[in-house]
Amino acid sequence: MTPLQAAGHRLAFPFGATPGSHLGDEMAPNKMLIGSILALTLAAGACSRNAKDTRQEAVKEDAKVADAAAAAEKARNDEIARLNDRVARLERDFTDKAAVLAAGKRIATSSLREEVQEDVNNVKQAVANLSTTTADNWWEREEAAMRATIDDVGADVKRIGGRVSEPAPAAPGQTAASAPFTSRRDSFVAEMKGRIDAMDHALDKVKAKGARETELNDTRDRVKKIAADLDHLAGAAADDWWTVARDRVRDYVDRVEASVKRLDDNKPRA
């Protein structure tokens, strides 16, 4: 080997390095780069799987919510269909009772006949209103319906002979629409209970016989029905909207059925 070749050999492979060992040193950074890329790829894949799993869970949860809402809607529609069937039977029963009264086979006061006829019409409308009641409008409808009913019953109590003492008015601002639900509920229930208690007390002093007693008993049942509705309402939460509205209409149908049934209780005097 010439001196020049020896010098070249020493420069190419210093300090006793071999061709193979020098190549390994040059590949080390590449190996680190490949490892980093592989780690990032695996991490990205894991993130992608996690995101996919999260999306799938969200879809499942949305499906559960949708299924629950659909089931609740079906239950409401089924209940309304049953109530409509009961009202249809109620109308037929009232027509039959009215025919008996018209024939003179049974008697009832004209006031009771008119009141029951009005109830039959009103309960039909109550079921129709129930079909469009929502979580947003239920309280306004509940309050308006109960106020109208109490006004109507109060007029009948006075007509029958009951001397109703007017309760003290509610404090100003207690029923403001901006007040929390529980405050509005409690204020309304307290106000209406005062009126109902006064009616109940007035009816205790009324005595009647025959057809007029039947009318008196029917009015007492109407007062009791409102009192029961107020007791139910007193413990209701805003989320109970369907239960409260449904039960009030269902109980209303029950009460009108009883009124129609007693319509021909009295025979004419010989």
Helices and strands, with pairings:
Blueprint lengths: L2 H10 L6 H84 L7 H21 L7 H23 L20 H23 L6 H25 L6 H21 L9
Could you explain the architecture of this structure?
The protein has 270 residues and is mostly helical. It has a domain at 83-264. 77% of the residues lie in helices and 0% in strands. It has 7 helices and no strands. It is elongated, with a radius of gyration of 40 Å. The model is unreliable at 10-17 (pLDDT under 50).
Counting helices, strands and paired strands, the structural category is: mainly alpha
Mean pLDDT, all residues:
84
The profile of the biggest β sheet is: none
**Shape label:** elongated
Roughly how many Å apart are the termini? Answer: 154 Å
Keywords for this structure?
270 residues; mainly alpha; 7 helices
Q: What is shown here, in short?
A:
This protein is an all-alpha fold.
